[in-house]
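Example 1480, ligand thiamine diphosphate.
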Amino acid sequence: MTVLEQPGSSRHGSTATGDRPAPPPAWRPRVDPAPLLPDEEPYRVLGTDAAAKVDSALLKQLHAQLVRGRRYNTQATALTRQGRLAVYPSSTGQEACEVAAALVLEDRDWLFPSYRDTLAAVARGLDPVQALTLLRGDWHTGYDPHEHRVAPLCTPLATQLPHAVGLAHAARLKGDDVVALAMVGDGGTSEGDFHEALNFAAVWQAPVVFLVQNNGFAISVPLAKQTAAPSLAHKAVGYGMPGRLVDGNDAPALHEVLGEAVERARRGGGPTLVEAVTYRMEAHTNADDATRYRSDAEVEEWRGHDPIALVERELAARDLLTPAYVSATKEAAEEMAGALRERMNADPALDPMDLFAHVYAAPTGQLREQSDLLRAEIAAEGEQ
Amino acid sequence: MTVLEQPGSSRHGSTATGDRPAPPPAWRPRVDPAPLLPDEEPYRVLGTDAAAKVDSALLKQLHAQLVRGRRYNTQATALTRQGRLAVYPSSTGQEACEVAAALVLEDRDWLFPSYRDTLAAVARGLDPVQALTLLRGDWHTGYDPHEHRVAPLCTPLATQLPHAVGLAHAARLKGDDVVALAMVGDGGTSEGDFHEALNFAAVWQAPVVFLVQNNGFAISVPLAKQTAAPSLAHKAVGYGMPGRLVDGNDAPALHEVLGEAVERARRGGGPTLVEAVTYRMEAHTNADDATRYRSDAEVEEWRGHDPIALVERELAARDLLTPAYVSATKEAAEEMAGALRERMNADPALDPMDLFAHVYAAPTGQLREQSDLLRAEIAAEGEQ
Amino acid sequence: MSTAVAAGGTTATGRKPATMAQALTRALRDAMAEDPTVHVMGEDVGRLGGVFRITDGLAAEFGEDRCSDTPLAEAGILGTAVGMAMYGLRPVVEMQFDAFAYPAFEQLVSHVARMRNRTRGTMPMPLTIRIPYGGGIGGVEHHSDSSEAYYMATPGLQVFAPATVADAYGMLRAAIASDDPVVFLEPKRLYWSKADWSPEDPAPVAPIGRAEIRRPGTSATLITYGPSLPVCLEAAEAAREEGWDLEVLDLRSLVPFDDETVCASVRRTGRAVVVHESAGFGGPGGEIAARITERCFHHLEAPVLRVAGFDIPYPPPMLERHHLPGVDRVLDAVARLQWESDWTEGGSGGGPEGSA
Amino acid sequence: MSTAVAAGGTTATGRKPATMAQALTRALRDAMAEDPTVHVMGEDVGRLGGVFRITDGLAAEFGEDRCSDTPLAEAGILGTAVGMAMYGLRPVVEMQFDAFAYPAFEQLVSHVARMRNRTRGTMPMPLTIRIPYGGGIGGVEHHSDSSEAYYMATPGLQVFAPATVADAYGMLRAAIASDDPVVFLEPKRLYWSKADWSPEDPAPVAPIGRAEIRRPGTSATLITYGPSLPVCLEAAEAAREEGWDLEVLDLRSLVPFDDETVCASVRRTGRAVVVHESAGFGGPGGEIAARITERCFHHLEAPVLRVAGFDIPYPPPMLERHHLPGVDRVLDAVARLQWESDWTEGGSGGGPEGSA
Ligand SMILES: Cc1ncc(C[n+]2csc(CCOP(=O)(O)OP(=O)(O)O)c2C)c(N)n1
Ligand SMILES: Cc1ncc(C[n+]2csc(CCOP(=O)(O)OP(=O)(O)O)c2C)c(N)n1
Ligand SMILES: [Mg+2]
Ligand SMILES: [Mg+2]
């Protein structure tokens, strides 16, 4: 007996010679891939016809935040030189991404920053000193994440992405109108957690926006050694979500694209992957030597595409970059920096017994023993 | 001073009102995504005009292997009922994928099967008893992987994919003309290892072919809960490699698509992701109850698209499905099954001291102590 | 302790005995019914009810949002569960088998275990991670690992390993109710063990962090947990014939660890053997033996011995019986204790009752 | 043992002292020069030379194919290295920091450690996994973990932890030459420690699996490895003033473990303290103390004590000094040994030389 003669085998046609077999049963979900693919070029607003449509108030808000953000970055870097911060990964050059990510969110939404994104957290309203706790080294997360809905700054790359998905999913299950925006670098997209997070988000249609800041490098490793894809935004179609490519130094463009993604998520339209093409102007951190792996010429080329300059051109074109405006903006930024410097110059209050707090809701027996030991040691030190 | 006034900021245009800023420097690699995207419908040969172009000898070879493969599957399942196999994950219904994967490879190439792919290993020439060692339970990998260039059957899902990439990369570095073909299920594509393997392969342009057997289920979980993508093949563009969608029950179509992918890899063209749309006709394993999660009607619909029946229709159309041919093919398959049954009915030779062999090249002190202990225990057992 | 009964029989109370698997299912059900923030998630936990059927019926009763099949990605499962916990839910995650929890290791160690500490208590992780673990069921490779050493060595995690039907229910309820993460190790080969236990009237169990004396004795203490408890009880019965009266102690939770009960027992008996299935080297037994020795040195008449799995990758089904610590291996260790005690200078030399 | 010298000074031999980092770099270089199958891979190991500069110059000398920057994915790095080893290469993988090795845990435990065993010896895994580990350098969270307990508990892995400049070179060469996988733990805070050591004439080191007596003594044995060796040597110096003559033993490799040298020392001194930075509970010290007690019980005048990191997530930079086991904590344990010894019934009561 051939298989053809088996019962059921001829369901889709007789066994007669020349008969065409049926195609595979159409049991697969069908999604049109076309709308999920990103454009070939990063979306831009500034320097294009779209610029005219940007509200001046928004432009000024973005500008003020960018100037403040840049100042925050230079101040934090200065604090590393003064030994007040253990380390600082600067987002200079990437301020547009940091600021736009913060501004598109509602109060009830959640931000999931990576270790480089203290500025986004600060732009969302977090106290800069609290945001810098991790990098100063007096504790890990320096703030109550619930207060401003900012998840802990995340050092293990891409591991915060599934957290964002889970939180957004939980909020949706509860019927809460909450969107999560999660930030990751180009290097972080190579981690398995990136893949798993995007897949869960798409399957669950969770209200999450993934913002990849593609700044060209993962420490010393250039994008070409990180991926062979046409763009990182092209990964989206493989999860069944839209991928958007945007100029990461163009604050209004980011604001628009991220804003749309957030709205889409809020409406129940599911997650979006946004790739922002930008550049890290400083070394990876103050401890890094960027001249080992990239040319000054490349850095200079990007200096010509500075996110603040881009907005200032448009402000100038609208005659809004008045000396009074400029000095007021600058002053506000200086004030923030001065206050930050001053507060960071004070030694943080430290209690070594904190080591044993919050390991568990209630300390185990052995933790009680160990905290007694440390207390005795410290008392003995004091006596000496 | 505004940023616009800083040195370098006007590199791409003056600060004059109305001037357009330059687009971001074109430092990103450019890859055309279009050729990487899969077709909307799975590629088919049988039942289409392309069928006529298939060589009759190949058709007969595929058919003989499919019949043999089906018989192997039914025999192995029977062995579980007789207590001769601990467990068997059947590939009934998926034989075209298993067989095509084996046949497109040269002798020097490597196959990386998952736990369901003993048939592919057998079709490649591995002794079926050795291939079943893992599932019988007398050892883990029952063969020397180097002998037939078949990597160990892999149980932790998707973890063998980076191995395939590494091996192919190593061969290329050595200047050897070797291709690796790695098999994974639809469920396995959700694992981080899938993502990382494809990314490494694309970045390294390693000669690897990834074959996803999308059989609609990961145990009980249907594809719609696994992914929201238009197809699994659409994931390829996100890595910068071509994605191909093929009817996984159409053996000549698979042979063609996989063959092209292998040739592309061999020529230095890099990796390919192939999604074969197929169906698991049996339960996940003999221990599973598939009626809990899918309908008989769905199974019946797929029975009408049986991979053997598809080939037989074409053979019949060519007047090649003669009674003599049919009985010879069947006889060969029965012979294989009979020999397998007979050999599996013998108890495997077991040496408990093997537990300590091959943990390290040379046993550590504690392993020597422990093997002495076991030896003494076994001796004492013997005396009782 | 639940009374063990023969399969199919009825018990002293005249009730149909329950399996550990049934008790676990019931614990999940009751927790979900009582607390709407409890969510069960994992591979195949929905319609199929899990490969061991522990989540059977939950999706039907509570809906797929409360008991949901996830994509096949363990890091993703645990990682999204972390996010759900951040939003106030109490996720109960199922890992399908011991070795398939390893992809989630980074999420477990770097986030689950530390989140409360990192955030000064503002972001607790009330997560339960259920892991069917250990061997003895004829599983092929990667299906029989005893991975508790990894979890014990990770501050911030609690590690529970029930050994009885009543504890399976009571401890799983406690795990889900705990505001700290629990790695909940379910001994696979005890899933079908039975006891006189009723879901309508679940016996209260000892609080978490308390070891239980499952069999009182005076000659020596067998210290164990999870799948090795029945082995130790059987060994204690067998030892009786040789004149030893062994105490059997079920740790129940490895973290928190009950130094008090353990040390009280060892101080009484003067001798101890730690028994577990996990590999000996670097396994839980080292910690346990070291703690006991630190705390009870002057009461010990012999070194604390360990009976454990060999220091090898878990063997294939046909060889696993040689690997698993069985009654004979426990009795041999007990005999060695005796030999060591005789050796003790100034030791009481107190061997088994009625020996010599 | 390499002689420790003050930074910037010259040594007794008149040579410029070398750092541990330099010795490691040289070991990689020499291994690559000698054996074309040795391949170095990891994040930033190419042009940058690694974040600790250990692979500095290798890409320039041997080309990017032999020393290659990988995509940022640790499971992928180790997983592809497994495939390369299958094809006959000897990959040397760098994990950038301790906690960033966790994503590769499944590949490590389920494949690297078991491949030889699974394939009956036909597919060995000559892999070296270099992990800069431990604290004391002011790293923010997830940059200072001591993860050796996880690796010790995994049969099939070797675990090396050099503590001296000479060993850094010699043991890394041995790791790369080994046909079995090695987790090679590089104590970050000793990277810049210096010793009289020359790459032109590297002193031969003891074979793998041998512990070394770094300081002979008679009162008690301090057993340690990696970053805690200098602490123990300093403690031994300090203890001398109190009349104790401490022996300091450097384990060098945790797997294989040198029972012989350890037990010989403890039998001689009758007392031991295990010192490590890793958390105490479930950490290496438990295994070590338990093994010693099993083997040397009747020679012990006090229980084997442990001085370890607290059972907490690694603390932030500003608090880490309170966590790390330091000289005082070691001396306190030594004092407790003494107290315990006096207590021993029938014990020799032999306290510190010249005490009382
Ligand atoms: C899991 C993990 N692996 C490695 C590291 C070490 N590391 C810190 S930052 C970094 C590069 C990150 O690159 P990218 O994701 O592009 O972010 P960027 O630094 O450019 O903002 C690496 C490798 C880490 N933090 N986490
Ligand atoms: C890492 C890992 N997680 C979970 C499992 C348990 N498991 C075995 S098969 C299977 C489903 C696999 O589905 P798929 O990849 O589609 O392959 P198929 O069984 O359909 O061939 C699961 C979850 C596993 N083997 N490995
Ligand atoms: Mg980057
Ligand atoms: Mg499948």
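Summary: Residues 1-8, 345-356 of chain D have pLDDT under 50 and may be disordered.
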